[in-house]
Amino acid sequence: MTQKDITFVADFLTEHFNEAPELYNRKGKYFNVERVGQYLKDEDDDLVSPPNTEGNQWFNFLKDSIHLKESPLLFPYYPEKSLHFVKRQMEGVIDQCLQKPADVIGKSVHQAACMSLYKISQSEDSTPQLFKLPFLWNDKTSNLHYVLFTMLENSISKIHILRRHTDTSRSVSNGIVAVEFGNFLNNSINESSDSRCYSCLDAHFYDDETVTVVLKESVQQEGKERVLAQLPLS
């Protein structure tokens, strides 16, 4: 150790571990604890060395503000408590704030429709992922909800579009349709049906009337072709 290191340690001990007679009647150590560590103790006791807030601009601002001084929107300050105490207080307030919306939203949600998408054997140890890339879109002009998704395995060349009215009491025609890409990009009718088969990598709504899809050539070979296609909903 250098002399500078020894001096630094000595100054630290002198500043923080002097005897403090005024603390003899208080629970805990009889000297000033290190001022950072006291904030991290998970206990409800008051800090041994609370911070000095004199001259703090924020506290002066609150003190001089009639409207903010008693505002319920400001989280109360506990200058005598550790961060663990403040954290528990804040978590309690947040839980209380979220409980009412959760109750209201939970009671307002109900099943509008039920559609069977696929069936699996109950004897299987692990359920395969058959439902992929759901994407939601809300057409505010027509008050319609859309869901785009694909089904893996036996229908990878199809994209499904589910449409529901925002008013659950109303129905719309063609509530769910499937678009199959297959070999629609073949250059001629002479090509075999399996030569240019495409599956959907991703799909999103471009706007209220157009769907953008990314297609991948299904043939197992190097340099698979990728196609970006725009599909009109009509």
UniProtKB/TrEMBL annotation:
Q: Which GO terms describe its cellular component?
A: anaphase-promoting complex; nuclear periphery
Phosphoprotein as UniProt keyword: no
Where the record annotates domain Anaphase-promoting complex subunit 4 C-terminal half WD40, the positions are 136-234
* Pfam families noted in UniProt: WD40_APC4_C-half
InterPro entries, alphabetized: APC4, APC4_C
Q: Name one GO biological process term.
A: cell division
Listed A to Z, the keywords are:
Cell cycle, Cell division, Mitosis, Ubl conjugation pathway
The UniProt entry, under PANTHER family, shows: ANAPHASE PROMOTING COMPLEX SUBUNIT 4 APC4 (PTHR13260), ANAPHASE-PROMOTING COMPLEX SUBUNIT 4 (PTHR13260:SF0)
Instruction: Give the protein name, as stated in the record.
Output: APC4 protein
What species is this protein from? Answer: Platysteira castanea
Q: Which gene encodes it?
A: Anapc4
